[in-house]
Amino acid sequence: MMIISCKIVPVGSVNNMKTKEEILKMTAKELESYKWSDDLDGVIDNNECTDCIDCSYCFFSDNCNECTDCIDCSYCFFSDNCNECTDCTNCDYCTNCTNCDYCTACDYSYKCRNAKGLRYAICNVELSKEEYDKKLKELGVRI
Questions:
Q1: Strand, coil or helix: what is 107?
Q2: 43-89 residue pLDDT tens
Q3: Which DSSP state fits 15?
């Protein structure tokens, strides 16, 4: 499990952001033309990601495409809310999955497809943790 810590910064101290008092003093025209700093785009979008394309709110991921809210994923495509997944496509709410497609809420799965809620599964067959770990080691798959 990865825990991401956030640093709390007082309003107005980041990127010349306006304070509450300044905002309250601004006219409608000033507010309409207010331009956010481009530096804020990276803060709310992808952090510490490498070579990701069209991803949103992802962290520590690489080579992903059109993923949302993923953490520490690699080579995932069209996936949402996944953690530590590799080579997964169209997966949602999965953790530690590899080479899976169209899966939802699976944990520690390998080469599963259209699966829901599986844990320690290979090709949609659930195994014990020990069997799963042993088989992946035998196959030379990174656990």
A1: strand
A2: 346 678 899 998 999 999 999 999 999 999 999 999 999 999 999 99
A3: T
Cα distances from 38 to residues 14, 15, 42, 83, in angstroms, run: 12, 9, 8, 28
Asked whether the beta carbons of 77 and 65 are under 8 A apart, the reply is yes
Beta bridge partners of 5: none
- Reference 37, options 18, 10, 19; nearest CA is 18
Contact assessment for residue 61 and residue 73, using Cβ atoms and an 8 Å cutoff: yes
What lies within 8 Å, CB to CB, of 122 at 6+ separation is 109, 110, 111, 112, 132, 135, 136
Going by C-beta distance under 8 Å and a sequence separation of 6 or more, which residues neighbour residue 49?
55, 58, 59, 60, 61, 62, 64
- The structure tokens 């809420």 sit at 105
